[in-house]
Amino acid sequence: xxxxxxxxxxxVETEILKxxxxxxxxxxxxxxxxxxxxxxxxxxxxxxxxxxxxxAVENVYEVKRRSHDKPLIVAVAKKxxxxxxxxxxxxxxxxxxxxxxxGALTLVFDRASCIPDAVTAGTExxxxxxxxxKIAQKLIELSGAPVVVPSANTADKASPTLAKxxxxxxxxxxxxxxxxxxxxxxxxxxxxxxxTDPPKxxxxxxxxxxxxxxxxxxxxxxxxSVKLSGYMPNAEILFSAFYDxxxxxxxxxxxxxxxxxxxAVIICLDKNISAYGSRTAYSLGNSYEEYAHNLFAVLRxxxxxxxxxxxxxxxxxxxxxxxxxxxxxxxxxxxxx
Length: 337
Ligand code: TXA
Ligand code: MG
Fold this sequence. Notes:
Strand order of the largest sheet: 1-8-2-3-7-4-6-5-9-10-11
Number of strands: 15
Helix content: 25-40%
Number of helices: 10
Structural class: alpha/beta
Distance between the termini: 44 Å
Bound molecules: threonylcarbamoyladenylate, magnesium ion
Protein backbone atom coordinates (compact mmCIF):
# COMPACT_ATOMS: atom_id res chain seq x y z
CA UNK A 1 0.00 0.00 0.00
CA UNK A 2 1.37 3.43 -0.91
CA UNK A 3 0.84 6.44 1.34
CA UNK A 4 1.77 10.07 1.05
CA UNK A 5 3.77 11.75 3.79
CA UNK A 6 3.10 15.24 4.98
CA UNK A 7 6.76 15.76 5.83
CA UNK A 8 9.92 15.36 3.80
CA UNK A 9 10.36 11.60 4.14
CA UNK A 10 9.98 9.90 0.76
CA UNK A 11 7.08 7.70 -0.27
CA VAL A 12 7.77 4.07 0.41
CA GLU A 13 5.92 0.84 0.32
CA THR A 14 6.02 -0.86 3.71
CA GLU A 15 6.41 -4.63 3.76
CA ILE A 16 5.66 -6.71 6.83
CA LEU A 17 8.12 -9.59 6.74
CA LYS A 18 8.30 -12.98 8.36
CA UNK A 19 11.56 -12.96 10.37
CA UNK A 20 13.34 -15.78 8.53
CA UNK A 21 17.08 -15.66 7.75
CA UNK A 22 16.60 -14.27 4.24
CA UNK A 23 14.35 -11.45 5.40
CA UNK A 24 16.62 -10.58 8.33
CA UNK A 25 19.45 -10.38 5.78
CA UNK A 26 17.34 -8.09 3.53
CA UNK A 27 16.64 -5.84 6.49
CA UNK A 28 20.31 -5.76 7.48
CA UNK A 29 21.18 -4.65 3.94
CA UNK A 30 18.49 -1.98 4.13
CA UNK A 31 19.99 -0.68 7.39
CA UNK A 32 23.43 -0.59 5.76
CA UNK A 33 21.94 1.40 2.89
CA UNK A 34 20.59 4.01 5.32
CA UNK A 35 16.98 2.84 5.36
CA UNK A 36 14.69 2.45 8.37
CA UNK A 37 13.56 -0.98 9.55
CA UNK A 38 11.20 -1.78 12.42
CA UNK A 39 11.87 -4.98 14.34
CA UNK A 40 10.84 -6.77 17.52
CA UNK A 41 12.69 -6.50 20.80
CA UNK A 42 11.56 -8.17 24.01
CA UNK A 43 10.42 -4.83 25.45
CA UNK A 44 8.57 -3.14 22.54
CA UNK A 45 9.12 -2.86 18.76
CA UNK A 46 12.08 -0.71 17.69
CA UNK A 47 12.47 1.65 14.75
CA UNK A 48 16.02 0.90 13.64
CA UNK A 49 18.51 2.90 11.65
CA UNK A 50 22.28 2.72 11.48
CA UNK A 51 23.52 4.79 14.44
CA UNK A 52 26.61 5.91 12.52
CA UNK A 53 24.55 7.28 9.60
CA UNK A 54 23.50 10.80 10.60
CA UNK A 55 21.02 11.13 7.72
CA ALA A 56 19.29 7.84 8.56
CA VAL A 57 19.09 8.96 12.19
CA GLU A 58 17.59 12.28 11.11
CA ASN A 59 14.93 10.33 9.18
CA VAL A 60 14.01 8.51 12.39
CA TYR A 61 13.18 11.85 14.04
CA GLU A 62 11.21 12.79 10.97
CA VAL A 63 9.02 9.69 10.67
CA LYS A 64 8.41 9.46 14.43
CA ARG A 65 7.68 13.20 14.56
CA ARG A 66 10.00 13.21 17.52
CA SER A 67 11.32 16.33 19.16
CA HIS A 68 15.03 16.83 18.39
CA ASP A 69 15.97 17.36 22.03
CA LYS A 70 15.13 13.74 22.87
CA PRO A 71 18.13 11.44 22.30
CA LEU A 72 17.92 7.90 20.92
CA ILE A 73 18.99 4.65 22.53
CA VAL A 74 21.67 2.72 20.64
CA ALA A 75 21.63 -1.08 20.49
CA VAL A 76 24.57 -3.37 19.93
CA ALA A 77 24.51 -7.13 19.38
CA LYS A 78 26.96 -8.24 22.07
CA LYS A 79 28.72 -7.07 25.22
CA UNK A 80 32.13 -6.61 23.60
CA UNK A 81 30.58 -4.02 21.21
CA UNK A 82 29.71 -1.63 24.05
CA UNK A 83 33.31 -0.48 24.51
CA UNK A 84 33.38 0.65 20.87
CA UNK A 85 30.71 3.33 21.37
CA UNK A 86 31.40 4.59 24.91
CA UNK A 87 34.40 6.33 26.51
CA UNK A 88 34.64 4.34 29.73
CA UNK A 89 32.73 1.55 31.42
CA UNK A 90 32.48 2.24 35.19
CA UNK A 91 32.70 -0.76 37.56
CA UNK A 92 29.02 -0.65 38.47
CA UNK A 93 28.16 -0.68 34.78
CA UNK A 94 30.25 -3.82 34.34
CA UNK A 95 28.24 -5.53 37.06
CA UNK A 96 24.93 -4.52 35.48
CA UNK A 97 26.09 -5.54 32.00
CA UNK A 98 27.04 -9.00 33.29
CA UNK A 99 23.76 -9.43 35.12
CA UNK A 100 21.13 -7.85 32.84
CA UNK A 101 22.48 -7.70 29.29
CA UNK A 102 21.15 -8.80 26.92
CA GLY A 103 17.84 -7.67 28.38
CA ALA A 104 15.51 -4.82 29.31
CA LEU A 105 18.20 -2.52 30.69
CA THR A 106 19.67 0.58 29.03
CA LEU A 107 22.78 2.25 30.48
CA VAL A 108 23.84 5.84 29.85
CA PHE A 109 27.61 6.35 29.34
CA ASP A 110 29.94 9.07 28.07
CA ARG A 111 29.80 8.69 24.33
CA ALA A 112 32.66 7.82 21.98
CA SER A 113 33.21 10.07 18.96
CA CYS A 114 31.83 7.54 16.42
CA ILE A 115 28.32 8.29 17.70
CA PRO A 116 27.00 11.35 15.83
CA ASP A 117 25.30 14.33 17.50
CA ALA A 118 22.06 13.39 15.77
CA VAL A 119 21.79 10.30 18.02
CA THR A 120 22.44 12.01 21.33
CA ALA A 121 20.57 15.27 20.73
CA GLY A 122 23.93 17.02 21.07
CA THR A 123 24.67 15.70 24.58
CA GLU A 124 27.96 14.01 25.46
CA UNK A 125 26.23 10.84 26.62
CA UNK A 126 24.96 7.76 24.85
CA UNK A 127 22.32 5.29 26.05
CA UNK A 128 23.13 1.66 25.19
CA UNK A 129 21.23 -1.61 25.33
CA UNK A 130 21.49 -5.16 23.99
CA UNK A 131 18.08 -6.57 23.12
CA UNK A 132 17.52 -10.15 24.17
CA UNK A 133 15.29 -10.88 21.17
CA LYS A 134 17.08 -13.24 18.76
CA ILE A 135 15.70 -11.52 15.63
CA ALA A 136 16.97 -8.17 16.89
CA GLN A 137 20.37 -9.61 17.77
CA LYS A 138 20.80 -11.23 14.35
CA LEU A 139 19.71 -8.10 12.52
CA ILE A 140 22.06 -5.82 14.46
CA GLU A 141 24.96 -8.25 14.08
CA LEU A 142 24.42 -8.59 10.30
CA SER A 143 24.03 -4.84 9.82
CA GLY A 144 27.62 -4.50 11.03
CA ALA A 145 27.02 -1.29 13.00
CA PRO A 146 25.24 -0.09 16.14
CA VAL A 147 21.54 0.58 15.53
CA VAL A 148 19.34 3.26 17.09
CA VAL A 149 16.33 1.64 18.78
CA PRO A 150 13.61 4.13 19.70
CA SER A 151 10.13 2.65 20.08
CA ALA A 152 8.55 2.26 16.62
CA ASN A 153 5.55 4.52 17.22
CA THR A 154 4.82 8.11 16.26
CA ALA A 155 5.24 10.58 19.13
CA ASP A 156 1.49 10.69 19.84
CA LYS A 157 1.02 6.93 20.21
CA ALA A 158 1.81 4.20 22.72
CA SER A 159 4.88 2.04 22.21
CA PRO A 160 4.03 -0.77 19.77
CA THR A 161 3.86 -4.34 20.99
CA LEU A 162 2.70 -5.83 17.67
CA ALA A 163 3.88 -5.43 14.05
CA LYS A 164 0.38 -4.17 13.28
CA UNK A 165 0.78 -1.26 15.73
CA UNK A 166 3.98 -0.29 13.91
CA UNK A 167 2.20 -0.47 10.56
CA UNK A 168 -0.68 1.68 11.86
CA UNK A 169 1.78 4.44 12.84
CA UNK A 170 4.57 4.13 10.28
CA UNK A 171 3.06 2.34 7.27
CA UNK A 172 4.09 4.23 4.12
CA UNK A 173 7.09 5.78 5.86
CA UNK A 174 9.53 2.89 6.35
CA UNK A 175 10.64 0.02 4.11
CA UNK A 176 10.34 -3.05 6.32
CA UNK A 177 8.71 -4.30 9.49
CA UNK A 178 9.99 -7.64 10.78
CA UNK A 179 7.05 -9.36 12.43
CA UNK A 180 8.16 -11.17 15.58
CA UNK A 181 4.70 -11.50 17.15
CA UNK A 182 3.81 -9.93 20.51
CA UNK A 183 6.56 -8.20 22.49
CA UNK A 184 7.35 -10.44 25.41
CA UNK A 185 7.58 -7.80 28.17
CA UNK A 186 5.41 -5.04 26.70
CA UNK A 187 6.91 -2.00 28.46
CA UNK A 188 10.21 -0.33 27.63
CA UNK A 189 13.66 -0.89 29.09
CA UNK A 190 14.80 0.54 32.41
CA UNK A 191 17.27 3.40 31.83
CA UNK A 192 20.10 3.96 34.32
CA UNK A 193 22.61 6.80 34.05
CA UNK A 194 25.77 5.10 35.23
CA UNK A 195 28.00 8.18 34.97
CA THR A 196 27.19 9.32 38.50
CA ASP A 197 27.59 7.56 41.82
CA PRO A 198 25.03 6.63 42.98
CA PRO A 199 23.71 5.97 39.48
CA LYS A 200 20.37 7.49 38.50
CA UNK A 201 17.33 5.60 37.27
CA UNK A 202 15.85 7.79 34.51
CA UNK A 203 13.03 5.41 33.55
CA UNK A 204 11.68 2.36 35.35
CA UNK A 205 10.92 -0.50 32.97
CA UNK A 206 11.51 -4.18 32.31
CA UNK A 207 14.22 -4.57 34.98
CA UNK A 208 13.07 -3.41 38.41
CA UNK A 209 14.90 -0.92 40.63
CA UNK A 210 15.06 -3.56 43.36
CA UNK A 211 16.85 -5.97 41.01
CA UNK A 212 19.38 -3.24 40.17
CA UNK A 213 19.93 -2.25 43.81
CA UNK A 214 20.52 -5.89 44.70
CA UNK A 215 23.55 -5.82 42.39
CA UNK A 216 25.08 -2.36 42.89
CA UNK A 217 23.52 -0.89 46.04
CA UNK A 218 21.51 2.29 46.30
CA UNK A 219 20.49 4.23 43.20
CA UNK A 220 18.75 7.59 42.88
CA UNK A 221 15.41 7.68 41.15
CA UNK A 222 14.70 10.67 38.95
CA UNK A 223 10.98 11.30 39.06
CA UNK A 224 9.84 12.23 35.58
CA SER A 225 7.62 15.25 35.39
CA VAL A 226 4.13 13.98 34.53
CA LYS A 227 3.92 16.63 31.84
CA LEU A 228 7.00 15.38 30.00
CA SER A 229 6.51 15.15 26.27
CA GLY A 230 5.66 11.72 24.98
CA TYR A 231 2.64 9.60 24.32
CA MET A 232 -0.65 10.75 25.79
CA PRO A 233 -3.73 8.70 24.92
CA ASN A 234 -6.80 10.52 23.58
CA ALA A 235 -8.85 9.08 26.43
CA GLU A 236 -8.42 10.46 29.95
CA ILE A 237 -6.56 7.90 32.01
CA LEU A 238 -7.54 7.53 35.64
CA PHE A 239 -5.29 5.35 37.75
CA SER A 240 -6.27 3.84 41.07
CA ALA A 241 -3.81 4.51 43.87
CA PHE A 242 -5.00 1.36 45.65
CA TYR A 243 -4.97 -2.23 44.58
CA ASP A 244 -6.83 -3.56 47.60
CA UNK A 245 -10.41 -2.40 48.09
CA UNK A 246 -10.39 -0.33 44.89
CA UNK A 247 -13.48 -1.77 43.17
CA UNK A 248 -16.04 0.55 44.78
CA UNK A 249 -14.05 3.67 43.93
CA UNK A 250 -13.47 2.55 40.33
CA UNK A 251 -17.17 1.73 39.89
CA UNK A 252 -18.31 5.12 41.14
CA UNK A 253 -15.84 6.94 38.83
CA UNK A 254 -17.08 4.85 35.91
CA UNK A 255 -20.72 5.57 36.79
CA UNK A 256 -19.99 9.30 36.95
CA UNK A 257 -18.73 9.23 33.35
CA UNK A 258 -21.78 7.32 32.18
CA UNK A 259 -24.15 9.68 34.04
CA UNK A 260 -22.67 12.64 32.19
CA UNK A 261 -23.10 10.97 28.80
CA UNK A 262 -19.49 9.88 28.42
CA UNK A 263 -17.99 6.46 27.79
CA ALA A 264 -15.45 4.71 29.96
CA VAL A 265 -13.69 1.37 30.10
CA ILE A 266 -12.12 -0.27 33.12
CA ILE A 267 -8.87 -2.15 32.58
CA CYS A 268 -8.28 -4.82 35.17
CA LEU A 269 -6.89 -8.17 36.15
CA ASP A 270 -8.97 -11.07 34.91
CA LYS A 271 -9.85 -12.22 38.42
CA ASN A 272 -11.53 -8.87 39.18
CA ILE A 273 -13.57 -8.50 36.00
CA SER A 274 -16.79 -9.93 37.43
CA ALA A 275 -16.70 -7.38 40.28
CA TYR A 276 -17.44 -4.64 37.73
CA GLY A 277 -20.76 -6.25 36.75
CA SER A 278 -22.23 -4.94 33.50
CA ARG A 279 -19.73 -2.09 33.19
CA THR A 280 -17.38 -2.24 30.18
CA ALA A 281 -14.13 -3.79 31.35
CA TYR A 282 -11.15 -5.25 29.47
CA SER A 283 -8.98 -7.88 31.05
CA LEU A 284 -5.23 -7.33 31.10
CA GLY A 285 -4.55 -10.94 32.10
CA ASN A 286 -3.86 -12.87 35.26
CA SER A 287 -0.69 -11.28 36.62
CA TYR A 288 1.12 -7.94 36.70
CA GLU A 289 3.53 -9.34 34.09
CA GLU A 290 0.50 -9.83 31.83
CA TYR A 291 -0.83 -6.37 32.84
CA ALA A 292 2.47 -4.89 31.55
CA HIS A 293 2.51 -7.16 28.49
CA ASN A 294 -1.01 -6.10 27.41
CA LEU A 295 -1.21 -2.49 28.65
CA PHE A 296 -0.15 -0.61 25.50
CA ALA A 297 -2.25 -2.78 23.17
CA VAL A 298 -5.34 -2.24 25.35
CA LEU A 299 -4.74 1.53 25.42
CA ARG A 300 -4.47 1.56 21.61
CA UNK A 301 -7.73 -0.39 21.45
CA UNK A 302 -9.47 2.03 23.84
CA UNK A 303 -8.34 4.98 21.72
CA UNK A 304 -9.43 3.26 18.49
CA UNK A 305 -12.86 2.70 20.07
CA UNK A 306 -13.06 6.37 21.15
CA UNK A 307 -13.63 5.87 24.86
CA UNK A 308 -13.62 9.15 26.80
CA UNK A 309 -11.91 7.55 29.76
CA UNK A 310 -9.85 4.54 30.72
CA UNK A 311 -9.91 3.64 34.40
CA UNK A 312 -6.89 1.52 35.28
CA UNK A 313 -6.80 -0.75 38.30
CA UNK A 314 -4.16 -0.14 40.93
CA UNK A 315 -1.05 -2.27 41.00
CA UNK A 316 0.90 -4.00 43.78
CA UNK A 317 4.29 -2.22 43.78
CA UNK A 318 6.38 -5.37 43.97
CA UNK A 319 8.28 -6.77 40.97
CA UNK A 320 7.32 -5.30 37.59
CA UNK A 321 4.43 -3.50 39.40
CA UNK A 322 6.81 -0.73 40.39
CA UNK A 323 7.61 0.08 36.73
CA UNK A 324 3.95 -0.22 35.78
CA UNK A 325 2.97 2.32 38.44
CA UNK A 326 5.54 4.82 37.09
CA UNK A 327 4.10 4.36 33.55
CA UNK A 328 0.50 4.70 34.68
CA UNK A 329 1.14 7.80 36.78
CA UNK A 330 2.75 9.40 33.73
CA UNK A 331 -0.02 8.28 31.39
CA UNK A 332 -2.71 9.55 33.76
CA UNK A 333 -1.09 12.98 33.86
CA UNK A 334 -1.41 12.71 37.63
CA UNK A 335 -5.13 11.76 37.65
CA UNK A 336 -4.84 9.35 40.54
CA UNK A 337 -8.11 8.23 42.05
O1 TXA B 1 12.84 -0.74 25.51
C1 TXA B 1 13.27 0.28 24.94
O2 TXA B 1 14.15 1.00 25.44
C2 TXA B 1 12.71 0.59 23.55
C3 TXA B 1 13.19 -0.50 22.60
C4 TXA B 1 12.53 -0.39 21.25
O3 TXA B 1 14.58 -0.44 22.46
N1 TXA B 1 13.11 1.89 23.11
C5 TXA B 1 12.61 3.04 23.63
O4 TXA B 1 13.09 4.17 22.99
O5 TXA B 1 11.81 3.07 24.55
P1 TXA B 1 12.38 5.61 23.11
O6 TXA B 1 13.11 6.45 22.14
O7 TXA B 1 10.94 5.46 22.92
O8 TXA B 1 12.71 6.08 24.56
C6 TXA B 1 14.07 6.30 24.89
C7 TXA B 1 14.21 7.17 26.08
C8 TXA B 1 13.81 8.59 25.84
O9 TXA B 1 13.05 9.05 26.94
C9 TXA B 1 15.15 9.33 25.74
O10 TXA B 1 15.06 10.65 26.21
C10 TXA B 1 16.02 8.48 26.65
O11 TXA B 1 15.60 7.17 26.39
N2 TXA B 1 17.44 8.60 26.25
C11 TXA B 1 18.00 8.20 25.09
N3 TXA B 1 19.32 8.50 25.07
C12 TXA B 1 19.59 9.11 26.25
C13 TXA B 1 20.77 9.66 26.83
N4 TXA B 1 21.93 9.67 26.18
N5 TXA B 1 20.67 10.19 28.06
C14 TXA B 1 19.50 10.18 28.72
N6 TXA B 1 18.33 9.68 28.23
C15 TXA B 1 18.39 9.14 27.02
MG1 MG C 1 9.06 5.80 22.94
